[in-house]
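ESCALATION

Customer reports they have been waiting on this structure for their group meeting. Please prioritize. Original submission:
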Amino acid sequence: MQSTLRYVHAGVAWLFVLAILVQVFLAGTAIVNLGGSGNFATHIDFGYTVIGILALAVLIAAIAARAGRRDIGIAFGMLVLYVVQTSLPYARSSIPEIAALHPVNALLLFGLAVIVARRALRQATAPRTDAAVSAVAAAAEAPR
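Update from on-call: job pushed to the front of the queue and completed.
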């Protein structure tokens, strides 16, 4: 069961990476200078739905897979960056310099997402050693 959850965590993490690439594509299709319509509605909707759900799913999957404190913390940090990402455009009229950090934060989010996905895949595909299996069995049998 644990190995299955680790594969789920890796799969969701890689889906998040893919979703960010789709999100960047959607932004590109809306940029007028690139032949777009100027309408960012699809980019916005995709960001608030698919990206948000996947960001939360990565964290939940990391916890369910017992990925370890560091990996769960990184997944939480990724969720925090997502919340920051969705907040930055609202500063457009009052503090445009802050709103201009939206693409910079997207790069940070993408980089962190790749790190999370690679670490999750490494954990899912790591060979189980007899020592690890013995330690888990011993911990399960230990009196509490």
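Sent to customer with the following note: Helices lie at 2-30, 41-64, 69-87, 96-99, 102-125, 130-141.
Escalation resolved.
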